[in-house]
User: What shape does this take?
Amino acid sequence: MTVESEQDIEALKRIGRIVALTLREMAAHVRAGVTTAELDAVARRFMAQHGARSGPVLVYNFPGATCISVNDEAAHGIPGARVIRPGDLVNLDCTGELDGYMADAAIMVGVPPVSPEAQRLLDCAQAALDRAIGAARAGRRIYEIGAAIEAEAQARGFKVLRELTGHGVGRSVHEEPAVPNYRNRRFRQRLHDGLVLAIEPHVAAGEGSIVEDADGWTLRTRDGALSAVYEHTVVIQGDRPLVLTAL
Assistant: This one.
C-alpha cells in the first residue's frame, strides 16, 4: 500500500509494534524441547490479547497463526509437533492484522550450542537486512534493494535464495511490488514516499535454491543447507525508511 494520511501511519505503527512484541514473546519461549505448535500458541494468545489477528490465517487460511521454519526450512513452515533441538536455527515469521492494516516481520533464534557456521549465516542475514533498509530510499529503484542484499551475502560467502522475495504490505499479506533479493534490473520501479514494503533477505549456506514440501506450504533448501531470514516492514520516507516492526 501507499500511505495517504497520518491515520494510515498511526495504524501501521500500532500493528507493527504488536508484531514486534509478538516475535519477542515467541523468542523468549524458544528452547530445546519446545514444539513449534507451542510457540505458535504463544503468538496466537499474545496477538489476541492485543486485539490483533493472524494475517496468513485471514488471507490464506494458513494452518497456523505464524510461520515457523527450522534449519533448512526457508519459509512457510507449518507449526506442529516438531520438537526444537539444541543447535537448531528457528525462524519466527509473524504477519498481524489490526483494524484492516497489516505488518510483517521475522527474526531468527539460534538454540545453543550454535555452530560457528550457523552463527555466520545469522549474522549475514541480519547484516543483509540492515544494508537493504539503508538502500530503501525514495527515488531509488527497487532492484537496488536486491543488489544491496546480494552484495552482502556474497561478501560473507553465502547465497541468496532467489525464488523468495520481499513484497508490498499494509492492507494484505502480500501486495505489489515484489522486492527481489538480488540485483534484477527488471524491477525498475522507483521507490516513492509512503510506499510500504516488507523487506526480507533470504540467505543460505548451500547452493541457493528451494523446493516445496508435500504439505503445499513449507519451502526448504533443495540441498538441505541451513537458511536464514530477518524481515521488517518499512515505510519509504526520503533518505531513511520508517521501520514499523522495530522495538
Remarks:
- The first strand starts at residue 53 and ends at 54.
